[in-house]
Amino acid sequence: xxxxxxxxxxxxxxxxxxxxxxxxxxxxxxxxxxxxxxxxxxxxxxxxxxxxxxxxxxxxxxxxxxxxxxxxxxxxxxxxxxxxxxxxxxxxxxxxxxxxxxxxxxxxxxxxxxxxxxxxxxxxxxxxxxxxxxxxxxxxxxxxxxxxxxxxxxxxxxxxxxxxxxxxxxxxxxxxxxxxxxxxxxxxxxxxxxxxxxxxxxxxxxxxxxxxxxxxxxxxxxxxxxxxxxxxxxxxxxxxxxxxxxxxxxxxxxxxxx
Length: 258
Fold this sequence. Notes:
By secondary structure, this protein is an alpha/beta fold. It is built from 9 helices and 7 strands. It has 2 domains: 6-81, no CATH class; 86-239, 3-Layer(aba) Sandwich (Rossmann fold).
């Protein structure tokens, strides 16, 4: 186990102790490189002598891909900055299937910081393999990157952008909430001004279909009010549990044990 800089943990991001996903983070960081490292090839070549799999969570976009070029063992990307989070996308798809029985034919809405949200970037790419309709709700300054929109367009998937949750409430099947990342704002006032319109509460839930589900990659800060947790459509803690099983299955597959 290589030590990890905990300044990047979920608790450091503002997650409350009852919500904390650090247990799942600890699993993801098994055989993980310290997030402060720049991953020069000698470090990766040393790590692969001690392990069967390297799991990397690192702030640099493309860091896991670069590490894989120099590793003699499989490398799993557990999050590379604002780039990708592919194992999260796998468990998200699994959760949708468990909750609704299928992924095809659904209206899937993503809310929050879509510009920097690596979980949404990976999930959108994976969803292009299905017959879905994608909807993005965010402040204009935090909209989905153009390169991601182009990938969806090339796949022939319907996609639309919005700035209000009320616009999508009546037809959403899967509401994928994400936190607007406070650390990216220079002041508390700027953060509050942008994040306040994108809070999910009971009033908004009452406008939605009875058989829809709410997902969140966690940590959840203020974007979902605690009262929503009591709604059976709130699936984010079940989603977190699925993450353990999906990542176990991925390790078994990679190690040839499946």
